[in-house]
Amino acid sequence: MAHIHNFSAGPSILPQEVFGQASKAVLSFENMGLSLLEVSHRSKEVVAMVDRTIALVKDLLDVPDGHAILFLQGGASMQFYMSALNFMKEGGKGGHIDTGVWSAKAIKEAKKIGTVVEVASSKDRSYSYIPKGFTVPSDLDFLHYTTNNTIYGTEFFETPKSPVPLLADMSSDIFSRKCSVADHALIYAGAQKNMGPAGVTLVIVKEELLGKTGRNLPSMLDYQVHIKGESMFNTPPVFPIYVSMLTLQWLKDKGGVAWAEQNNRAKAELFYNELDRNSLFTGTAAKEDRSRMNATFLLKDESLEADFSALLKAANISGLKGHRDVGGFRASMYNALPLESVMALVDVMHSFEQQKG
Ligand SMILES: *Cc1c(COP(=O)(O)O)cnc(C)c1O
Q1: Class in CATH terms, 256-356
Q2: Is this prediction's pTM over 0.85?
Q3: Of 44, 101, 136, 223, which has the fewest beta carbons less than 10 angstroms from its beta carbon?
Q4: CA of 149 to the centre of ligand 1 (A)
């Protein structure tokens, strides 16, 4: 098979090395003589593997003591509800910044628990920018935001200043650049963009803020229950955690988040320079807020879409179709995507212009 340049938005590209290691563990894990898929999550080998994954997260993101690291199920989508349930007091209210589809879904779920105050929104211009200069009321129980808007291609490059606990959906840019965990009461991320395969959700939560809602929470939706159970209150997704561990080890070996950030800046710069230079295309996000993870763009002449798609296919470039809600194209450039793949894409855009321009 020819090498495919994988620009998929999620589930998305993982390092090639990881696939080889993961397949070995399917046949035989450690020296157990058993597949990782058939052993107890309470075996010492699996417990050690989960501990190793926690240590990698702590190290790579510089997680301070007092913040617990959990591996849960239900995706980022379950966290929309669970985060509000654990942080909104009985009769209280939560603040949200609305920057697109994912934040809107978080708002919808939080409204099932209590009052939501929309602190800022970029809906007025089709979510093409990141709101700035807003004030966060100090009577809120929390402020929730989405650090990277996977669908609209915008990203917060500055952490919002908040007088109340800050909750962040970092599903699509966690581990892609430095972030201050200490500034956040809660960070969550579905693994399937920058961390591993689908099936596990990373949660980092500041323990001292929990247990203050006045509510009797369902066990599975209570962070304190999962902290006490060390992510093994029920059977955890062992294999997705293992593949995440391999991916994080790969990242650490490369030079960690600082390496990823440098590399992601270089890829984004290469892509956006071509986008701005090329007369056939136009970007959809405000320049200063352009995401380094997901670049969204359009052909000025939509009737050329089929021709462009055919060229992409011929160059083994996959996953560039825009989200069904916004159309156009989207180049997702997560950590594991090599610079060479962005070069291949830029080459195709360039030759397409020569052909049509
Ligand atoms: C992909 C994505 C989600 C949804 O994640 P699931 O794990 O499918 O629930 C939520 N938020 C953001 C920012 C995403 O990119």
Answers
A1: alpha beta
A2: yes
A3: 44
A4: 10
Determine the average pLDDT of the residues in 156-171.
97
- For 47, the enclosing helix (H) or strand (E) is helix 44-61
Share of the chain above pLDDT 90, in %: 97
User: pLDDT tens, 185-234?
Assistant: 999 999 999 999 999 999 999 999 999 999 999 999 999 999 999 999 99
Angle at 130 between CA 127 and CA 133, to 5 degrees: 130
Q: How far apart are CA 256 and CA 6, in angstroms?
A: 22
pLDDT tens column, 117-135: 999 999 999 999 999 999 9
Q: Which two tokens stand for residue 237?
A: 């997704």
- Would you state the pLDDT for residue 144? 98
Cα(307) to centroid of ligand 1, in Å? Answer: 31
What's the pLDDT band for 176 if we cut at 50, 70, 90?
A: very high
Q: What does the alpha-carbon distance between residue 226 and residue 223 come to, in Å, rounded to a whole number?
A: 5
Read off the tokens for 267: 């890829």
Question: Where are the extended beta strands (E) located within the chain?
Answer: 5-6, 67-72, 93-98, 115-121, 142-146, 148-149, 154-155, 166-169, 186-190, 201-206, 281-283, 294-299, 317-318, 329-332
Highest CATH level, class, for 16-254: alpha beta
Cα of 21 vs centre of ligand 1, distance in Å, is 26
Closest C-alpha residue for ligand 1 atom 4: 76
| Angle CA 200–61–169, to nearest 5 | 50
CA dist 198 and 204 (Å) reads 18
- Tell me the catalytic residues: 102, 169, 193
Q: Answer whether residue 324 shows pLDDT above 90.
A: no
Tokens describing residue 325: 């809600």
Domain boundaries, the chain: 16-254, 256-356
Is residue 83 within 8 A of residue 188, CB to CB? The reply is: yes
Atom 13 of ligand 1: nearest residue by CA position: 171
